[in-house]
Amino acid sequence: MEPVRDIPNSEKPAPLFSLPASHSLTIESPPAMDNLRYGDAGLLVHLIAFFFGTRLQFSDWRFDGKIPTKRMNSFFHASDVSSSFVSHVYQQWKNLSDELKTRYVNILYMHGKVKSCEWEWDAFIYQYMVFDAIYRFYVLSGNQEIHGHKNRLKGLCKHFEVPYDNNQLNLIYELRNEFFHEALWDGATPGLSLKPNTSFHTVKSLDRLNSRLIVAITGYRNDYTRSGWWFRGWEPFGKSS
Predict the structure, then answer these.
(1) pTM for the predicted model, two decimal places
(2) Which one-letter DSSP state was computed for residue 116?
(3) Which bin fits 107, alpha (ψ -120 to 50), beta or left (φ > 0)?
(4) Cβ proximity of 138 and 217 under 8 Å
(5) Contact 222/241 with Cβ under 8 angstroms?
(6) Domain ranges of the chain
(7) Alpha helix (H) residue ranges in the chain
């Protein structure tokens, strides 16, 4: 890594941060491609980050935001589950088209980026972006389009056997519509409302829903994907069954 130095004619530093390398990644029989970081290595780095509830990056690449020091997902697992999950996803991913490979890695990356968001409305923007990306992945995988955002929320849950609660889906849908179309966050200006609101919990619910869909779209179905995402607390993450 190059030493820190002043750059002439620059006053505002770039909001990018680096961390020292902590692990090495080895891929047996890697595919022939110019840069594995945009392929197999990229998948594995962001998939492992997803599983352990953090953000990871290559040692000489930087992060665009603060990095959590504690895991920020909501499941626990036995010691042998991580290798089972990563192996399954990697094998399924290698059978995808190049476009779907890129889209799945991007879903993982953007879902991880949320962990650097400091405001709940920023987190919601990225989380809904992730949901839309999951929906597009679903369509490009050969499934029928679902018209209407509320119907997509319920439709993906049904298709991937993820449980849902209509009231919780409505909260996500209404929060999206107000924010994206009227610039209102829970009926007020973002950051200026003093009234109690449920938006914080709704953002967390969408995060947990996306996490289950990210697992389920690879064909990995377990106790976690079949658990309710609108509850708070830790959920078991077992092997696929």
Answers:
(1) 0.89
(2) G
(3) alpha
(4) yes
(5) yes
(6) 36-231
(7) 40-51, 81-94, 98-113, 120-140, 149-159, 166-182, 199-216
